[in-house]
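Format notes (please read before filing issues)

Several people have asked whether sequences and structure tokens are stored in separate files. They are not. Every record keeps both together, in the order shown below: the sequence lines, then the token lines. Line labels are part of the format and must not be stripped during preprocessing.
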Amino acid sequence: MIGCYSMIGCYGPRPSVLCFAVSVGALFSMADRTVLVTGASGALGARFAEVLIQAGARVIGTARRPDNAVLAALAARHRERFVPACLDITDDASIDALLARLIAEDREPQVLINNAGIASSARAVDTDDALWRRVTATNLDGPRRLMQRWAERRIQLAQPGAVVNITSVLATRTMPGTAPYAAAKAGLLHLGRSLAIEWARHGIRVNALSPGYIATDINAAFFASDAGQRLIARMPGRALGRPEDLDGALLLLASEASRHLSGSEIVVDGGHSVASL
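Then the structure lines:
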């Protein structure tokens, strides 16, 4: 569980002393918040759902398959705090059906975590139109459609909200074999900045969380290989990040702790993006 701590501090010469009290637990609390996490069946998405639930949120976690084992495990563990849902982020009808369901069930999310994504390791010259469209549809077009429909409803209700787009260090610093993924993540990063401007007057914040290389089951085989080990050796800290390394940044952006933060990007990559070439 996430702990609750209080801090009290005072500034200024006595007798006129400015004092303040901060409840850190309350600052990052997600109590009474409903959060939609896309791609909740992946390592990062499942971690995001768990952290948000521990902070007090009700989470709707999505995957393409309604019978996904990871979502089922989260639902069994958290009962009323986690609701599994089917969503194909590349399908407009699927997006509309999910949002309509959440309205009907009185589960409209105040916070949207755009986490669903896929990657490609194909070289640019080997990337055909079908592959390009598949990667960009999942990483950029789908999130755009979901944000648009979700924000339209928030604006109609005159209710604030927050979006956290999970982008990547590759949105600003790329490497061979990542052209469609890097382009889509860069597009999502800049799209979020544009939406932050448009939606600020409606109280809707849009920020980005950009992870570096995070150790998961999906990339374990690569990072155990010689090529993966060489990549790790080039990293400033000579180590991969872990999913829990994203907890603090996620809670900051999703909670009211960042109520005056919008159009920003938090990079969690162990310094990789600022390392020398």
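For reference, the curators noted about this record: The chain has one domain: 28-274. The chain has a mean pLDDT of 91.
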